Amino acid sequence: MMMDDDTELVSSSDQNMDDASTENPAVPQADPPSSDDSGDSDSDDDAESIQQIEILESELSSIPYNYDAYVQYIKLLRKTANLGKLRQAREAMSAIFPLSPSLWLEWARDEASLASSENVSDIVMLYERGFSDYQSVSLWCDYLNFMLESDPSVHGYTSDGISKMRSLFERAIPAAGFHVTEGNRIWEGYRAFEEGVLAAIDDADVEEKNKQIQRIRSIFHRHLSVPLKNLSSTLITYKAWELEQGIDLDIGSDDLNKVSPQVAAANKKAQQMYSERAHLEEHISNKDLSDTEKFQEFMNYIKFEKTSGDPTRVQAIYERAVAEYPVSSDLWIDYTVYLDKTLKVGKAITHAYSRATRSCPWTEDLWARYLLALERGSAPEKEIYAVFEKSLQCTFSSFEEYLDLYLTRVDGLRRRMLSSKISETLDYSLIRETFQQASDYLMPHMQNTDSLLHLHAYWANLELSIGKDLAGARGVWDSFLKKSGGMLAAWYAYIDMEVHLGHVKEARSLYRRCYTRKFDGTGSEDICKGWLRFEREHGDLEDFDIAFQKVMPRLEELQLIRLQQESTPVKPPAGLKEHNSQKSTREKRKAGQNVEDESLAKRQKTKGRKVNEVDVGQSATVPNIKSENGKAADSNKEESEDTKPLKPKIYTDECTAFLSNLSVKVQEEDIRKFFSNVGGVDSIRILHHKDTGKPRGLAYVDFVNDEHLAAAIAKNRKMFFGKKISIARSNPKKGKKEFTRRGNDGSGNSKEPSQIPEKAKVETVGEKQGDEVQLKGKNTFAVPRNVKLRGYTNPKPSADEPAKSNDEFKNMFLKK
Q1: How is residue 685 annotated by DSSP?
Q2: What Pfam families is this protein classified in (predicted)?
Q3: Around Cβ 692, how many Cβ atoms within 10 Å?
């Protein structure tokens, strides 16, 4: 007996695939009768859709990792029936992201409606690819119905076709048959297919018919033992089917008296299990809950299933959760950790990690666990290396995460090289290349950190233990010390290696190289004392005497420096000299220093006015400036003593990051949130245009120390408000043109200090007034400035001519 081609094996009436409609929008449909107005409207819609497609294409070409843009792009391409671009877009998106079940269902139906009987295998591959991303009851039902309708061997009930469908149904049961509310669709479809096989058997073949009847009965019994919705209806259906076979199980009642004891006990347990889960199903199906609340309900459901102890059911609810929240890294980590503990090894674990890393490629922990799972499963080196290389192409939040990946890779190589269970031969060069790659990549970003030091210590150790290369181990340390020679711990690690190897001479040579270096804190003293301790334990008396003669002067020097630092008062910030209240008024008013102090005060005021592009204004404390008549401006002193204004904050650019290419919409709070994972933000200054007051797209961010600053610089070129911002250490002195005051020759060419005439270097304020009058001397406050009477031309005075008094000037003018 042949089943009709229109027969639907698995019910799809309650599918919740909103985007996958029965009508295929990718195939041009016949246009319904319409008026001219509706035609114009359709034309406008098509033009708008084409314009939106072009915009999305441009956006995806610049930012390919945009999930929502791809979804919208595919939706518009289906609407316009652009089949060529539609296939390309789906393939491109699938290469980057795992697609949702609804997207796979759309894709498979679109292609199935266009495919011929010769292309059945291509459609099958689409369904299989969909299952590799997420498990879905609706996708499985659609796949099974497609096979029944399109595969002649299946709907012809050949032995190959029957075997193929049975294999598919047995795969579908653990994947979708335990879904509490929708799993019945898989079981009912399986039973319907087997009933079709029974109807196709010749009535004369009684033995074969009885085998098939028993097969259907077995499916009923398995179905009744699974906690699913509407099990009572399934029981009634089973009794009715048994009645057709001549067995009366009292179809009019719900009791199980006439059912076999094993089936009755299994069904009773299933009914109880469903009643325990019914409220959990209601909670995760509640559409009024927010995403956060619904996610928590899923986690409660998962916790409940774990207490039941059935791994199959736990895995089923996990699959439902990740299909609902595919980009939740916490959920994927929780799922994969459970699989590691429960299954330990197997393709199910590695497949789960593959899906997890595609869904959340930014989560380093998933990549590291993926590598470990492959190692546990004895995966070949080629497969492990491919996953490792793929992980390095992802973007993580810190360089510590990249370091963890490199170390995980090295750990795996080391274990497999030393293991006798691995048949594959691995060369030590793989470890050396991995270490070198890690050092080259991380050194610019993690220089002088303990983490990078431990990496190189590990590397040197493996050069000795596995590589058997002492020169290679020394090369590791020498290379590291060239860039991080200021780390005392690095020198100690290198020295310890030589000491443990018994190389006293080489260890002594290292002490001689580093004992004069400057280290943080008491490190310089510690290394000197360490050398003496080393000679006491490993050297002879002559070696100790030599070390003592070298170290003691160094220790005395360090002690003297420390005493000087402790006794020296803290200097005020650059540009803000404190007023020296110790000077007497008599000393302040020395007439010979009047003009010189004025010039110095002006230079000092100009210097102190702006520190790191921040105008400290009138609140800054400036030196007491003398007036031209020789009187000190004591009012400034009195005012400062009475009001004692707060000192402005001075920015020294020691731990400051300079941000550029910022969006004009960025506020201080946005920048603080951007660096929240870095921490250590002290203050933020966004620069504005002086005229308009609008943001310039530039900012300074001060950090509490260099460690936080280095972590902030690591976020260089990250997307922030739709733009890739540039982050660098602030260095305002760099690129600033150096010049000497009054060193310009008037032609635009600046002069070096050595090129400036000696006279110009000591030029006073009076000399700067012009060539006609040269003012010198002590009492110049009453000397007229550069004023000329009509028709009078004053010859240039000689350098030795004394300044004229008021009376002399008056007589000279009268004579003239």
Answers
A1: E
A2: RRM_1, Suf
A3: 8
List Cβ neighbours of 337 (8 Å cut-off, separation of 6 or more): 369
Q: What pLDDT score does 449 carry? A: 94
Query: Which of these, 468, 457, 533, 530, lies nearest to 497 by C-alpha position?
Result: 457
- Return the ∠ at Cα 757 (arms to 751 and 761), rounded to 5°: 90
- Length, in residues, of the chain: 816
Alpha carbon separation from 789 to 42, 793, 794 (Å, rounded): 90, 8, 10
Q: For the beta carbon of residue 211, count every other beta carbon within 10 angstroms.
A: 12
Contact at 8 Å (CB) between 675 and 715?
Answer: yes
Q: How far apart are the C-alpha atoms of 361 and 405, rounded to whole Å?
A: 13
- Contacts of residue 240, defined as CB under 8 A and 6 or more positions apart, other chains included, come to 251
CB 467 within 8 Å of CB 426: no
The three-state secondary structure class of 23 is: coil
Secondary structure class of 697 (helix, strand, coil) = strand
What are the Cα distances from residue 112, in Å, to 22, 73, 109, 527, 565? 12, 21, 5, 76, 83
Q: Which tokens belong to 103?
A: 């997207």
Is the whole model's pTM more than 0.85, yes or no?
no
Residue type, 766: G
Gap between the Cα atoms of 448 and 486, Å rounded = 8
Instruction: List Cα–Cα distances, 454 to 349, 476, 486, 490, 743, in angstroms.
Output: 31, 12, 15, 9, 53
Question: Distance between CA 219 and CA 216 in Å, rounded?
Answer: 5
Q: How far apart are CA 118 and CA 228, in angstroms?
A: 38
Q: How confident is the model at residue 55 (pLDDT cuts 50, 70, 90)?
A: very high
H-run or E-run covering 727: strand 726-729
Q: Any idea what DSSP says for residue 802?
A: P
- The full DSSP string for 218-245 is HHHHHHHTS--TTHHHHHHHHHHHHHHT
105 CB-side CA count, 13 A: 24
Indicate the SS3 state at residue 63. Answer: coil
Q: Which residue has the higher pLDDT, 380 or 565?
A: 380
Question: Quick one: the chain helix, strand, coil %, rounded to 5?
Answer: 60, 5, 35
List of E strands, 257-387: none
Give the model confidence (pLDDT) of 767-811 as tens digits: 444 444 444 444 444 444 444 444 444 454 555 556 666 666 566
Tokens of residue 107, six digits = 């894709």
- For residue 775, what pLDDT is reported? 44
| Separation CA 490–CA 449 (nearest Å) | 10
Written as six digits, the tokens of 57 are 């294409």
Task: Give the strand pairing for 681-688 and 614-615.
Answer: unpaired
Task: Give the three-state DSSP class for 532.
Answer: helix
* Cα separation, 399 vs 378, whole angstroms: 29
Token pair of 143, please? 């796949």
d(CA 359, CA 352): 11
Cβ neighbourhood burial of 371 (10 Å; 0-12, 13-18, 19+): buried
pLDDT classification of 346: cutoffs 50, 70, 90: confident
pLDDT, position 701: 93
Residue that has been written with the tokens 């305002």 in this structure: 732
Across residues 243-268, what is the average pLDDT?
Answer: 82
Enter the tokens of residue 674. 């951007």
* Average pLDDT score over residue span 67-89: 91
| Residue with more model confidence, 206 or 589 | 206
Range with the poorest average pLDDT among 423-432, 633-642, 643-652: 633-642
Q: Report the distance separating Cα 86 and Cα 798, nearest Å.
A: 92
CA distance 413 to 390: 17
SS3 of 603-662: the string is HHHHHHHEECCEECHHHCCCCCCECCCCCECHHHHHHHHHHCCCCCCCCCCCCEEEEECC
Compute the C-alpha angle 102/106/110, nearest 5°: 170
What sign does the CA torsion over 195, 200, 201, 202 have? positive
Looking at the DSSP assignment, which residues form a beta bridge with residue 702?
Answer: 656, 683
Amino acid (one-letter) located at 53 = I
How many helices (H) and strands (E) are present in the chain, helices listed first? Answer: 33, 8
